[in-house]
Amino acid sequence: MIDLHTHLDLYPNALDILARVNKENRFTLAVTTSPRAWLATSQVFKGHENIMVALGLHPEVADQKFSELNLLLSSIHKADFIGEVGIDGSSKYSKTLEKQELIFDSTIRECEKAGGRIISIHSRGAASKILSIIRKYPSCGTPILHWFSGSITELKEAVEMRCYFSVNSLMLKSQKGKDLASKIPSELVLPESDGPFANLNGKPIMPWEAMDICSDLSKIWNISISQSKKQMMRNFEKLNVGLPQ
Ligand code: MN
Question: Does residue 245 form part of some domain?
Fold first, then answer.
């Protein structure tokens, strides 16, 4: 099992499930919502070699956490994984759009300076903005667009740029999500839970359930579930995350 985007620190019982996540998942990317949360979570999750804590500043809290921007930028060189970062273009956050763009642009610029990073990106209502910033820094690393919900045109642009897409079960429950997923080349798809925010049947999706998308994907791709699992693992191997063997 692998999970490329989970808010592991925000599950109500995070400490109780940590050992199980580490055991069942070969790799888990635990994204954080602020640089200070990254510092704290890295300490708490230390010693779980299959769980990587990503340095983030969630666009929904761009305003509240703006004072942590310097900590974010000065920590990128020490962090192997970045996320959750991005831009949220929905009306609820329109007042902070300028700050969000400033944070995202400077983050991606810093990733390029650091030699490239794996970056888990939030792009709700802002896919075009996200893509144009990534385009400015072509050596920023490997962008993974998490829970992509843009237009087909934006999706095609992201595919041309060889962005990855982390997909969760909830996304594949809607027709729009299915349509989008069917247009992503299978070699660019990765599994995510986005738990505990993503809920299925009233329960948060667990990191060891992220690969459940393979059942829906096998229908979209017209292959067996085990073939889609293999595809997912091949995609993961290509990321070269540098896990201890
Ligand atoms: Mn998220």
Answer: no
CATH number for the domain spanning 52: value is: 3.20.20.140
Query: Using one digit for the tens of pLDDT, what is the confidence trace for 77-120?
Result: 999 999 999 999 999 999 999 999 999 999 999 999 999 999 99
Residue 143 counted as domain residue: yes
What range does the domain containing 103 cover? 2-239
Return the ∠ at Cα 55 (arms to 97 and 200), rounded to 5°.
Answer: 80
If pLDDT is split at 50, 70 and 90, which confidence band does 243 have?
confident
Q: What's the chain's average pLDDT? A: 96
Neighbours of 112 (CB within 10 A): 17
For 199, the enclosing helix (H) or strand (E) is: strand 199-200
Q: How many C-beta atoms surround the C-beta of residue 87 within 10 A?
A: 25
Cα(48) to ligand 1 centroid in Å equals 21
102 C-alpha to ligand 1 centroid (Å): 20
Cα–ligand 1 centroid distance for 13 (angstroms): 18
Domain count along the chain: 1
Measured distance CA(87)–CA(102) in Å, rounded: 10
Q: Is residue 222 situated within a structural domain?
A: yes
pLDDT for 81 equals: 98
Residues with CB under 5 A from ligand 1 (ion): 84, 194
CA 156–ligand 1 middle distance (angstroms): 22
Residue 244: predicted pLDDT: 61
Helix, strand, coil percentages (3-state) for the chain, rounded to 5, are: 50, 15, 30
pLDDT single digits (tens) 3-29: 999 999 999 999 999 999 999 999 999
Residue 122 within a domain: yes
